[in-house]
Design a protein that fits this description.
- The complex is a heterodimer of chains A (about 300) and B (about 270).
- Chain A is mainly alpha-helical.
- Helices cover about 70% and strands about 0% of the residues of chain A.
- In chain A, helix 9 crosses helix 11 and helix 11 crosses helix 15.
- Chain A starts with 11 loop residues before the first helix and ends with a helix.
- Chain B has about 270 residues and is mostly helical.
- Chain B folds into 2 domains: about 50 residues, no CATH class; about 210 residues, MetI-like fold.
- In chain B, helix 4 crosses helix 9 and helix 9 crosses helix 13.
- The chains are: A mainly alpha (about 300), B mainly alpha (about 270).
């Protein structure tokens, strides 16, 4: 437990198990199980009311033809075929794009910044405080800030481009650029998180292997690639996992920036489900889509479980 | 060579700081600009004539005042609920080891953590409307608490594991009951953990957007939904929007900078164990 690289903490749950082994079972069972179960009661009540019951209801609703305006009757699997022949696949595709972009843009930049911060130059504390700011801001406000700046006619980004003689771009109105804009804003807000966790990981690394490598004449690049990165893998695994999950859930920023548009260019699964349920008011179809999303995400749940148990 | 390296390090960090700060600076600046300055091309990076009109407009809106009050109440109550339920669950999990139903509990936590909120929001909307609890701050308090529960449990688990079981046993030998052990032994030891968890959960609660967007209308409208409302209207009032965004970000920015040490410790302890 005191080694600097014990598993990451969503993974702590697991260290609990290993701790259980460290204590003789007789000692641990001195308190009856029922006492311990009561500790979990408030949590279970919350979970049942907000997650379990609604999901079960969702499964039931998905088999009917209910809308927000009228109650429905049982129709079978029609909603599922409707969803799977509709906008589902493009939405799944763009969800994947945002996820990959989140990992491949945010992790390298965040890690690089953490490496520089880890050099402990003068003023590192101040740099770190400033660099953390974006991740602390309300995502909705972040969306508004960037909408202000990315506006094609009045935004400062095109304004500066024009000053320098570059023609401005239609950031939120062009299908490709809208995707780029969402990726950019998501990165702006979340690189600090990657940086923070990477920095904590770097600071927890033992010095000895790096010193040994430098004595043996390894270049900085070799040390980084063959020592730092492998030692940092558990932390990076957690970071990547969190970023994948959060980017799949991405909603606020897209809702504010583009509302899924132009057309359906930035409509990920969350946005699509929102649109079906609350813009088109097709409750049953939204429920079916929700169930499909649960199924599609099974690999993600599984991965998260693996990371927890690591 | 060494000096050059140092210089390049500073250069990278300064550039990154500018990238992090500029959007915030620009938003606050825009909120202080007059209508004409706001749309000036080329853009002006300093404001010669400050106007408070945009703020006056937002602050005079009764809907804004209500949203602010609702958000504060909901954040306080929901954070307390999530942190308490999470801390108790973490304690139960750690002390029980792996007996009885923990796999299910862990599985549900992962589900809540990884599932897009909209998937739960669709059936929740129906339930809440049927129960007559639509547009009710109490509903938001409970729903947010459940959504933030995984974080609270995971963060607290680490802190609870830091308490030696022997201490609790010693207290019991001295005649303390279970409540006494919790209050006099466990609570003081996990206080820093509770602080970190509270700050983190409060931040997430304050920022929540999708749930109030779906489950609330006028009575329980929260600040993020109010602020977000500026872009959905047909004609965007950019000045007021910048003012509303500034009001939403500046207090949080100041507050979180003040408690950054706690926040950083809480977040990092999530990934690394010293």
């Amino acid at each position: 437990m005191s080694s600097p690289l014990t598993p990451p903490a969503p993974g702590r749950v697991l260290t609990a198990a290993s701790r259980a082994e460290a204590h003789p079972p007789t000692r641990r069972r001195r308190q009856p199980l029922s006492v311990h179960a009561t500790y979990l009661l408030p949590a279970w009540l919350l979970i049942a009311a907000v997650v379990v019951v609604p999901l079960a209801l969702s499964a039931w609703m998905s088999l009917g033809n209910e809308t927000m305006l009228r109650s429905g009757r049982f129709i079978g699997l029609g909603n599922y075929t409707n969803v799977l022949t509709g906008d589902f696949w493009p939405a799944l595709g763009i969800t994947l794009v945002f996820s990959l972009a989140a990992v491949f843009v945010q992790v390298p930049i965040g890690l690089a910044l953490a490496m520089v911060l880890n050099r402990e130059l003068r003023g590192t504390q101040l740099y770190r405080s400033v660099l953390l700011l974006p991740m602390l801001l309300t995502p909705v406000a972040v969306g508004l800030m960037w909408r202000l700046m990315l506006n094609a006619d009045t935004g400062v980004i095109n304004g500066v481009a024009t000053m320098m003689g570059i023609p401005g771009l239609n950031w939120l109105g062009d299908r490709t650029l809208a995707v780029v804009s969402v990726v950019l804003v998501d990165a702006w807000q979340n690189i600090p998180f990657v940086m923070l966790l990477s920095l904590a990981g770097l600071q927890s690394l033992p010095d000895a292997p790096l010193e040994a490598a430098s004595v043996d004449g390894a270049t900085r690049w070799q040390s980084f690639w063959y020592i730092t990165i492998p030692m940092l893998t558990p932390v990076l695994g957690v970071v990547v996992m969190i970023r994948i999950i959060e980017s799949i859930k991405l909603f606020d920023i897209i809702y504010i920036l583009t509302q899924g548009g132009p057309g359906t260019a930035t409509q990920n699964l969350s946005l699509l489900n929102y649109r079906v349920g609350f813009s088109f008011m097709n409750t049953s179809q939204a429920a079916a889509l929700g169930i499909i999303i649960c199924v599609v995400l099974i690999p993600v749940f599984w991965l998260q479980k693996k990371v927890n148990e690591q | 060579m060494k000096a050059l390296k140092k210089l390049s390090g500073h250069a990278i960090l300064v550039l990154a700081c500018i990238a992090a700060l500029f959007p915030v600076y620009w938003t606050v600046l825009s909120s202080l600009k007059t209508r004409i300055d706001l749309f000036a091309q080329p853009p002006t990076f300093w404001v010669s004539q400050i106007t408070w009109d945009n703020y006056a407009q937002v602050l005079a809106d009764p809907e804004f005042i209500r949203a602010a009050i609702v958000t504060i109440i909901v954040t306080l109550a929901s954070t307390a609920l999530a942190t308490l339920a999470g801390a108790l669950a973490a304690y139960g999990l750690v002390r029980r080891g792996r007996f009885g139903g923990r796999g299910t509990f862990d599985g549900v936590l992962i589900l809540i953590r990884a599932l897009p909120g909209i998937v739960i929001a669709v059936p929740l909307y129906k339930i809440v409307v049927d129960l007559g609890m639509y547009d009710n701050p109490g509903t938001l308090i409970v729903v947010y608490a459940a959504i933030n529960l995984p974080f609270a449990v995971w963060l607290m688990t680490g802190f609870v594991q830091g308490i030696p079981y022997e201490l609790e046993e010693a207290a019991r030998v001295d005649g303390a009951g279970q409540v006494g052990v919790l209050v006099r032994v466990v609570l003081p030891l996990i206080a820093p953990g509770l602080a970190a968890t509270t700050i983190f959960v409060a931040l997430m609660t304050w920022n929540e957007f999708l749930i109030p967007l779906v489950l609330a209308d006028r009575q329980a409208k929260t600040l993020p939904v109010y602020v977000g409302g500026f872009v959905t209207s047909r004609v965007i009032n950019w000045g007021a929007m910048a003012a509303a965004a500034s009001i939403a970000i500046v207090p949080i920015a100041i507050l979180t900078t003040l408690v950054q040490r706690n926040l950083v410790r809480g977040l990092s302890s999530g990934a690394i164990k010293d």
